[in-house]
Specification:
It is a single chain. By secondary structure, the protein is an alpha/beta fold. Among the domains are: about 280 residues, Nucleotidyltransferase, domain 5; about 80 residues, RRM (RNA recognition motif) domain (Alpha-Beta Plaits); about 80 residues, RRM (RNA recognition motif) domain (Alpha-Beta Plaits, 2-Layer Sandwich). The protein is about 30% helix and about 20% strand. The chain contains 25 helices and 29 strands. Strands 4-29-26-3-15-13-14 form a seven-stranded mixed β-sheet. Strands 6, 7, 8, 9, 10 and 12 form a six-stranded mixed β-sheet that branches. A four-stranded antiparallel β-sheet has the order 17-18-16-21. The two termini are about 15 Å apart. About 20% of the residues have low confidence. Pfam families: RNase_T, RRM_1. This is RNA exonuclease 5 isoform X4.
């Protein structure tokens, strides 16, 4: 049994709802599943204490980024964060607080319903209150990135097709409702049906699509698609892509419920979208089902139980009508009142001062049914599956949840056994005892709250940023008083992109400080040009010396030997930007290349001029590197070395210096106030050891996942991080 992380040929990773980036083989051999959560830890912690987390780095080869955490991470892991039945009943069935207050027309527990009328608190509507039409509800590019929309310039989109709709959008632009159905193949979810309706609700396109890969599951209960339905179909993905490009005008606006999943299934990029799942949101960003919204606001019943699966035309039309409904509303208040009447239990008819009328369509709905109607699955209406705990229940299994008492995130479910402890030490001891008795276990360790305060996290982030800046910088010199700075730039930029370059004038003879974008470039400059003759001078190439770089030799060794960098080499020195095809052709004589990584600019999406090649083994990588250096470096075209920067560093520019105008490292360091205590370093080391001790006790073939959820505060959020692997023989 083994776990394989699929690294796309063109990096960096593109967020996708389906788990297409990894595969678990021989699942029947699985001995158990253990999820270890380091509560309040983030990707920043993993990077800042990289040297201290020895065991995590040496056990887990496969790593991945996580978005900012939901309010209840443990429940989110279990799939409960969007369907907390008890909480929903309390919100939906409790007597509304506004009945006793004349000054408030909307109950506080319903104010979380966001119709994008309040621009500051809304996930959409950045254009401001001046816009009254459809443009008010358009998603910005930043919001589309956050929700995982395919966007022009993002990596891993080489097979995606642009709709060609690049015209200016106004309040008079045409709206089109879009919805897709999918099936399950070995590649994940593939398109089986696409429906498009125009602004009048007329269906202008309804096509069945035959997937390219053999179907493993038709997901009939959701898609309505069966083997018999798809058997005679000849239409392929490219056919519907071409048809959509022909049908949509240049200023078309696509409307859908979690339409990002539809565009991903279509493998199409469209810049102007309205997402109804984001127009109507509840507490903690909970999304509502399209079925519920259609009934609450439109008085329409869709996705009826007597039908086989969903009707994509019906769903597309419902989403379109919801947006039309909002455009017609004069204010947010009327929309909030409409929903509040459908959520609350039958109100007292003689309440004074309350003239609201309940929606007749839902006035008789039992509270339990209303509760179930609220939650919208995070992966979209067309991709719904039974909940995780429901699946466990159907297999007669329970889940063990272990954690500290002060954590208030324990799920309330009859299918989970919760064990609360007073310390991380007790959590470790109980976990050793209880995990062998449970097939699925969640173990939660915690940092002390003093270590995750906002100001401390900001200080950690700034120190990590300065550390990366200094490790990516070199001082070059001495030069003559009159030397050509541009010549120095030309010589040194072959190793990698230069963020900034300036002359240091405090020395007797001038030196140049060069700040590179990546660690590999700075290290190549030191290894290659230190002691050489440049501009008629024998120069030194050295790193700045500070408390951040004193242990660079150790950091260099650990980064080179890190499992995620195994078999990966860095190459630079190309005069023009190369595509994946260019690289494959150029290095076609290396037969064991597994992947090509093409880093991109986070802001513009443009490809960089440095690349990473992944080989099947370290020996193959070193052999290729030697040949590249021997054959190419003589002409000064290509330079290479072992990779240092883990791929997940490229995914997030959270603490990587990106500003070419930033002050030189010495100035930044002078401003830094080293207040971080060694306590947090020791805590991270202890947690690392605890995980190792627990890992050693696990059965062979146990799937082990370590999650650092990230941290969230009103001022700043830090993304999470994950590690995953299969326990092998000790």
């Amino acid at each position: 049994m083994y776990f394989q992380q699929q690294e796309p040929k063109s990096c960096i990773f593109f967020p996708t709802p389906s788990c297409s980036w990894c595969h678990l083989y021989h699942q029947r051999c699985l001995a158990g599943i253990v999820v270890l959560i380091l509560q309040d830890a983030s990707r920043l912690h993993f990077s800042s204490f990289f040297l201290q987390l020895t065991h995590l780095r040496k056990i887990f080869r496969h790593r991945f980024g996580l978005p900012c955490p939901p309010s209840n991470f443990v429940s989110a892991v279990l799939g409960l964060q969007l369907n907390p039945t008890v909480q929903i009943r309390e919100e939906a069935c409790a007597e509304p607080s506004y009945l006793s207050r004349q000054d408030s027309s909307v109950p506080s527990n319903l104010k979380a319903l966001d119709l994008s009328m309040d621009v500051q608190n809304s996930p959409v509507g950045e254009s401001g209150s001046k816009n009254r039409g459809l443009t008010r509800f358009l998603l910005s590019e930043e919001q589309m990135r956050e929700e995982g929309y395919p966007i022009l310039g993002l990596p891993n989109l080489r097979d995606f097709v642009h709709t060609g709709c690049s015209g200016k959008v106004t309040d008079l632009s045409p709206l089109f409702g879009l919805d897709c159905e999918m099936c399950l193949t070995k590649q994940g979810k593939e398109l089986t049906r696409v429906s498009l309706v125009d602004v009048g609700g007329h269906c202008v396109m309804d096509e069945l699509v035959k997937p390219h890969n053999p179907v493993l599951n038709y997901l009939t209960s959701f898609s309505g698609i069966t083997k018999e339905i798809l058997q005679p179909v000849k239409t392929r993905l490219k056919d519907v892509q071409d048809k959509l490009k022909h049908l949509l005008p240049s200023d078309a606006v696509l409307v859908g419920h979690s339409i990002n999943y539809d565009l991903q299934a279509l493998q199409m990029i469209h810049p102007n979208v309205i997402d109804t799942s984001l127009l109507f949101t509840g507490n903690c960003g909970r999304k509502f089902k399209l079925k519920f919204l259609a009934e609450a606001f439109l008085g329409k019943e869709i996705q009826r139980g007597d039908k086989l699966g969903h009707d994509s035309t019906e769903d597309a039309r419902a989403a379109l009508e919801l947006v039309q409904f909002l455009i017609l509303q004069e204010s947010r208040k009327s929309a909030e009142l409409s929903l509040s009447n459908t959520l609350v239990c039958p109100l007292k008819s003689n309440v004074s001062g309350n003239n609201m009328q309940a929606q007749p369509q839902l006035s008789c709905m039992p509270c339990d049914e209303r509760s179930e109607a609220l939650s919208e699955p995070s992966y979209g209406t067309s991709l719904t599956h039974p909940g995780f705990l429901d699946t466990l229940q159907s297999n007669g299994q329970r889940i063990l949840v272990l954690g500290r008492k002060e954590n208030k995130e324990f799920p309330s479910s009859s299918l989970s056994e919760n064990i609360m402890c007073t310390s991380n030490k007790e959590v470790l001891q109980r976990a050793k005892e209880e995990i062998p008795r449970s097939f699925i276990s969640i173990v939660q360790f915690s940092l002390n709250t003093e270590y995750v305060q906002a100001d401390l996290m900001e200080e950690m982030n700034e120190k990590m940023r300065m550390k990366m800046l200094q490790m990516s910088s070199v001082y070059v010199g001495p030069f003559r008083k009159r030397f050509c700075l541009q010549s120095v730039r030309r010589i040194f930029q072959v190793f990698g992109p230069i963020l900034s370059l300036h002359v240091v004038t405090e020395t007797h003879q001038p030196f140049v400080c060069i700040q590179y974008e990546v660690l590999e470039a700075a290290q190549l400059a030191v290894e290659t040009l230190n002691g050489t003759n440049v501009e008629g001078c024998c120069i030194k190439v050295q790193r700045p010396v500070s408390e951040f770089t004193l242990d660079w030799d150790l950091m260099l060794k650990e980064l080179e030997e890190d499992l995620v960098n195994e078999g990966i080499i860095y190459i630079s020195g190309f005069k023009k930007t190369l595509t994946e095809k260019d690289l494959q052709q150029k290095f076609s004589h290396f037969k064991d290349i597994e992947a090509v990584f093409l880093p991109q600019d986070h802001k513009t999406g443009k490809l960089k001029k440095y690349y990473f090649l992944k080989f099947s083994s370290s020996a193959s990588a070193m052999d290729a590197l030697q040949k590249i250096n021997e054959q190419e470096n003589g002409s000064g075209k290509i330079w290479g070395r072992k990779a240092l920067t883990p791929s997940y560093f490229h995914e997030d520019a959270e603490f990587v210096p990106q500003d070419p105008e930033s002050p030189p490292p010495s100035e930044l360091f002078a401003r830094g106030d080293a207040r971080l205590d060694n306590d947090i370093k020791e805590v991270m080391k202890k947690l690392d050891k605890s995980i190792y001790k627990l890992y050693k006790t696990l059965q062979r073939n146990t799937l082990c996942v370590v999650l650092l959820p990230g941290t969230k505060s009103p001022h700043r959020s830090f993304s999470g991080f994950g590690l995953i692997g299969i326990k092998e023989d000790n």
